[in-house]
Fold this sequence. Notes:
The structure is a single chain. The protein is of the alpha+beta class. It has a domain at about 270-360. About 40% of the residues lie in helices and about 20% in strands. The chain contains 13 helices and 12 strands. Strands 2, 3, 4, 5, 6, 7, 8, 9, 10 and 11 form a 10-stranded mixed beta sheet that branches. Helix 5 crosses helix 12 and helix 6 (about 125-145) runs parallel beside helix 12 (about 395-420). The model is unreliable at about 1-10 and about 25-40 (pLDDT under 50).
Amino acid sequence: xxxxxxxxxxxxxxxxxxxxxxxxxxxxxxxxxxxxxxxxxxxxxxxxxxxxxxxxxxxxxxxxxxxxxxxxxxxxxxxxxxxxxxxxxxxxxxxxxxxxxxxxxxxxxxxxxxxxxxxxxxxxxxxxxxxxxxxxxxxxxxxxxxxxxxxxxxxxxxxxxxxxxxxxxxxxxxxxxxxxxxxxxxxxxxxxxxxxxxxxxxxxxxxxxxxxxxxxxxxxxxxxxxxxxxxxxxxxxxxxxxxxxxxxxxxxxxxxxxxxxxxxxxxxxxxxxxxxxxxxxxxxxxxxxxxxxxxxxxxxxxxxxxxxxxxxxxxxxxxxxxxxxxxxxxxxxxxxxxxxxxxxxxxxxxxxxxxxxxxxxxxxxxxxxxxxxxxxxxxxxxxxxxxxxxxxxxxxxxxxxxxxxxxxxxxxxxxxxxxxxxxxxxxxxxxxxxxxxxxxxxxxxxxxxxxxxx
Length: 454
């Protein structure tokens, strides 16, 4: 049966017409819903960060060394901060966004910078002000009891590690670190970072660059331990007891570092890999004569892990001023597929810690495994999604300014998604997609509140 005279020439029945109409309305409704959700992300971010962390004042903390600048430093700080929030791959892309009007509502009535102005500003950026920016965010988060319940079994646990950036055989700056491989000099930069591990939101306490050797008398560049000691001192001065336990890899099993951290009443957990150390030989000799002190089984996804633990207290480590607790874990892992064991693995983990008996072996086992959070959730995420391994500008000072701004953006992002939203579903709304929606909203939504005004 045909419908209406004007549809006689259209080969469609009434039932098909209603079906197509319903499908069209459904698609339109879904599209409107997606646009509505997209419009909410950036407004919520600005509302959250303005209300809780006073975003306008944070942006005004950005300062540089330019004299009588035509473009205000806070405008450049705003563009860089939101550029990192929007996952900009380069300063050229940021300049393109500026030309397209992405930031015209955020900086209403302000003259926006070019890429050359941004680079000039970064070379003279006040690093202490950027550190203060991050410090104010963290202090406010702590006052709001973000870390009240701890990150692992009631303890606030952080990890410290180094990351290498921008390796090249071409010398770009006198401040680049150097090493010789097969007779060829390689130039690179390296930073040490400290971040909470175990649960979200993850907070980056701070980052510190390694410095090049000074003078002809010094044959080597600064080591990671030296930069890590400087970073821990700075963090203690800013936040005092910023973490209960600090987890490190085997590189940090050095007496000066252990003595420094424990002097701040912060416990350490350090992975041990050097089997030549006396403390390792002594502990393994003791453990070989007895059965495990603790045994437990845990399930993770498609794995069943049986953990055996040996512990020895009040052991001595060369030049360390406190007693050491040595722990050995042996993991027997069964990998399952459809309920059947397809593979069995055995792994040994050795570590030293200054934690006392109140920190159980099960908690220590969780902490040493969560140490990888700083690699996977900070360095990997910043490199892969936030382009930290892209050299936005040359020179250690400007690179450090970029790293500090990325650190601030990372903390605001984590606190917004995992503290303010609470019910954020990462599988439904991937972070990269959320960042892209925010950028689009910033460009087309006329209701975005300005953060700076002329």
